[in-house]
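Hello everyone,

My group is preparing for a crystallization screen and wants a predicted model to guide construct design. The compound we'll soak is zinc ion. Before spending weeks at the bench, it would help to have a computed complex in hand. I've included the protein sequence and the ligand's SMILES below. Output in structure-token form would be ideal because that's what our pipeline reads.
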Amino acid sequence: MGDAPSDESFFGRFLTKLLSVLRWGQSPECIFCKIAAGNDPSAEIHYHDSNYVVITDIAPASKHHYLVIPKEHIRDMKCLDDMHIEMVNDMLRIGKQVLESRGGKWEHCRNGFHNPPFISVSHLHMHIISPESEMSTRMDLTFRPDSYWFKTTETLLGILDRMKPPVSQVQSPIDELGDLR
Ligand SMILES: [Zn+2]
Ligand SMILES: [Zn+2]
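Reply:
Good plan to model first. Here are the tokens for the complex, ready for your pipeline.
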């Protein structure tokens, strides 16, 4: 009986953690979840709303380097499907807005996502880097467009778009009418 309270507290802590992930989609150990929840005072936050937060990358690859992070804990781009197209477009719009509001040029911007298993933090984030011309050789390689390890937002949107069910699989009311005739 003496062991019961500690077992209970261990189990309680485990349940609390599990519930917080299930209910809020946040992982207590995840640095980006911590930032999204406003629990990391060191993060330089440029934008936040109920769904997204934008911070400066901890090791900027150029003059402007921001991370657009959804508050929901999504591991990486491999977890996305056609239902996330709107989310990725939101992230792109917000990233462009932050870059331009801070004097960066969108036409000189490189943006995209790490392709697993080559991920830095296991919480989905879009890199917004500008200007591309000021990137070092090493950074240029780290964020090489459409390499095995980094995919541009445009490429990701193309991948997600191809996940949409083919139109022919969706039965239209006209097809049903045809069956009745
Ligand atoms: Zn997270
Ligand atoms: Zn990253």
